[in-house]
Amino acid sequence: MRGRRITQLTALLALNPYFLYFGSRSIYQGGMKGLCVPGLNCNACPLTVFSCPIGSLQHSFSLLSGKVKGYVSRGLGALLYVLGSVGLVGVVVGRMPCGWICPFGFLQDLLYKVPVPELRLPRRAAWGRYAFLLGLAVIVPLLTAESWFSRLCPMGALEGGLFLKAVPPRDPLPPTGWFFWMKIAILLAFLLWFMFSRRPFCRAVCPLGAMLGACNRISLYRMRVDREKCDTCGKCRKVCPVDIDIFENPDSAECIRCLECRRACPRGAITGGFRAL
Known about the structure:
This protein is mainly alpha-helical. The chain contains 14 helices and two strands. The chain has a two-stranded antiparallel ribbon with strand order 1-2. The longest helix is centred in the first third of the chain and has 22 residues, at 72-93.
């Protein structure tokens, strides 16, 4: 769908305005840095205008851990803000941002076009998102006061680590050590995986996808399948970035509401829209 590609590219440039960096040769720290955007976008990237919800979530739990004295109340406020902002988006459109604006989702869509054999993910892989959300994004920051998901996130290595090494800022960077190369190895493994499977990070790893997907069933924007028109031909699944049969469950937490299935359905059985309050 051409319109979706334009939206994804526009979102990438809006969230990471490269021209600002090359124009000033300085790290951009705009006043909107504290605002969460409903997409996986690294806080450490020197070009990021907004903040990543998962990075902000981990930071709030780090403050709530009590290891940094005097910041517990601030951590509670940050947690309520993150949950409120993500919840608001989820209640309105569900997981639609994953399909239309997330930069990492866009990258996965592009790499999957490389002509290699497909490796299909089992349905149970979806539980991985909730494990990463509860484990690395909640429990580990509470215990260690460290944002370990962000530190290991391949999006961070791509947007922050590699970019800063290629175009270093004026302030000197710390020396490259084993941890940096481990992050690059994780990134390369995922990039290779993206070529063989449809959005594996979104489906099996992304905590933000878990949070937004949980709202699909209650969101104002809903997918609908006309059972009388649908003949379960499977053409919807062939174009689906997350490899699901939408007719099985239009409210599935896996669905990123990209609307590719609606375009591909030969019988016009699939629709999407806002329901009445």
